[in-house]
Amino acid sequence: MRKLILLSGIIALFAMPAYPAYRASVSDTISVTKDGPVLKLETQAVNMGTFQESETSERTVKFTNTGNRALIIHQVFSDCGCTVPTYTKDSIAPGESGEIKVLFKGKGRPPGDFRKVLRIRSNAINNREILMVEGRISRSYLRKK
Questions:
Q1: Residue 94 and residue 65: Cα distance in Å, rounded?
Q2: Residues 77, 54, 142, CA angle at the centre, nearest 5°?
Q3: Chain segment 69-101, per-residue pLDDT in tens
């Protein structure tokens, strides 16, 4: 009985696809016939590039309201203080666009690749979206004189 339970657990684990493969945007699957705003991000991931630990990197992601009512972004936040978002706080009319500016502070972060998540909350039908923030902090080398 234990072997059967263990085997079924392993099969279920391998049957699940990897995170990026199954994470389709919710706004891609929502029909416009539903009544309300729909948040459509231009991309699901932002590449901040490669930069030194002492530097900061900034990128902008645009979004569009593809629904039929006004869109209001309530909150955009990250789990850490190194990723600082600012966003359009005004109401976005149907068909109009807004933007989310992402600032990543490298100070105090270890060198190497990083991946952070920005969470977006709004009044849209897809009221919770995520935006991946990726990049690389390069190691600074000391030069001898």
A1: 5
A2: 150
A3: 999 999 999 988 899 999 999 999 999 999 999
Tell me the two tokens of residue 85. 């978002």
CA distance 122 to 72: 6
Radius of gyration in angstroms for the set of CA atoms belonging to the chain, rounded to a whole number: 20
Between CA 90 and CA 74 the distance in angstroms is: 10
For the chain, the three-class secondary structure string (H helix, E strand, C coil) is CHHHHHHHHHHHHHHCCCHHHHCCCHHHHCCCCCCCCCEEECCCEEEEEEEECCCEEEEEEEEEECCCCCECEEEEEECCCCEEEEECCCCECCCCEEEEEEEEECCCCCCEEEEEEEEEEECCCCCEEEEEEEEEEECCCCCCC
CB 55 within 8 A of CB 48: no
In whole numbers, what is the pLDDT of the chain averaged over residues? 84
CA distance 47 to 62: 14
What distance in Å separates the CA atoms of residue 54 and residue 56, rounded to the nearest whole number?
7
Candidates 93, 109, 99; CA nearest to 41 is 99
Q: What is the mean pLDDT of residues 107-135?
A: 94
